[in-house]
Write a structure and sequence with these properties.
By secondary structure, the chain is α+β, with helices and mostly antiparallel strands. It folds into 2 domains: 139 residues, N-terminal domain of MutM-like DNA repair proteins, CATH 3.20.190.10; 125 residues, Helicase, Ruva Protein, domain 3. Helices cover 23% and strands 20% of the residues.
Length: 296
């Protein structure tokens, strides 16, 4: 599933090619693409037609396009997009052949010659229209108001993050994937940041000191910025940017997917363990598991 770097790459593409354009027509080709818009395809198309798209925004793994208004209170509605496992938002010329798994098409009132397409092979992603948080200048959809800010957000509160870690009776990787605590970090980048921090995924959060949590945040930001610089991580053709191009960060991964390969720091064979219906990759030498607690 795309994580923060991949979604941010898509957001930047939308900002360049789609924002500021007025919707002329919407063609819903598969109802699952808008299943979260309960009023149905006709209402979805009617509410979008004639509206101008604002600057693309992102919080964690979610991105949205505010629908601009002329009033002083900010956008009142927004298109929320979640890419799921295989969703793609592509900017294509009108004459380009339809993709095999094309689910929705948005055409614009200008003469730029391109349209926005939502392609989704597994149909886990989708688009929906939502009211925005009153007075929010970015037009944040109200349904994701509970999602925490991500570590690349200038407004991310490091002190509050550390305090929350210390309060919670959980383990560090579970905390990193809790989108109400810190957003945008998924399985791949959690493993990468933990390897760089020499932290085992089962380390209790209550044992982290303030310097250790600050170091972990530094590594999370580093790995995400490095991934952003090369377009994100693409293990197959399902994640691409708006131009259909893949990312290349999978060539730089230090932990994820490297089972039995030598640790790039100490040479010990990397291990994989089942974890919450996923996998965790770690170095058994650099990332020592926590000691079992003595029975009371």
């Amino acid at each position: 599933m795309p994580e923060l770097p991949e979604v941010e790459v898509v957001r930047r593409g939308l900002e360049r090619w789609v924002c500021g354009r007025t919707v002329a027509a919407v063609d819903v080709l598969h109802p699952r693409a808008i299943r979260r818009h309960l009023a149905g395809p006709g209402d979805f198309a009617a509410q979008l037609t004639g509206r101008r798209l604002g600057v693309a925004r992102r919080r964690g793994k979610y991105l949205w396009l505010p629908l601009e208004t002329d009033g002083p209170t900010g956008p009142d509605r927004a298109i929320l997009a979640h890419l799921g496992m295989s969703g793609q938002l592509l900017v294509q010329p009108h004459e380009a052949p339809d993709e095999k798994h094309l689910r929705l098409r948005i055409r614009f009132a200008d003469d730029a010659g391109t349209e926005l397409r939502f392609v989704d092979q597994r149909t886990f992603g989708g688009l929906s229209l939502h009211d925005t948080v009153p007075g929010d200048p970015e037009g944040l959809p109200d349904v994701i108001a509970h999602i925490a800010r991500d570590p690349l957000d200038p407004a991310f509160d490091e002190a509050a993050f550390h305090a929350a870690l210390r309060r919670r009776r959980t383990t560090i990787k579970r905390a990193l994937l809790d989108q109400s605590l810190i957003s945008g970090v998924g399985n791949i980048y959690a493993d990468e940041a933990l390897w760089r921090s020499r932290l085992h995924y089962d380390r209790p959060t209550a044992t982290l000191t303030r310097p250790r949590s600050a170091e972990l945040l530094t590594h999370i930001r580093e790995v995400m910025n490095e991934a952003l610089a090369v377009g994100g991580t693409s293990f197959d053709s399902l994640y691409v940017n708006v131009n259909g191009e893949s990312g290349y960060f999978d060539r730089s991964l230090d932990a994820y997917g490297r089972e039995d390969e030598p640790c790039r720091r100490c040479g010990t064979a990397m291990r994989r363990r089942p974890w919450m219906n996923r996998s965790s990759y770690f170095c058994p030498h650099c990332q020592r598991p926590p000691r079992p607690r003595a029975a009371s």
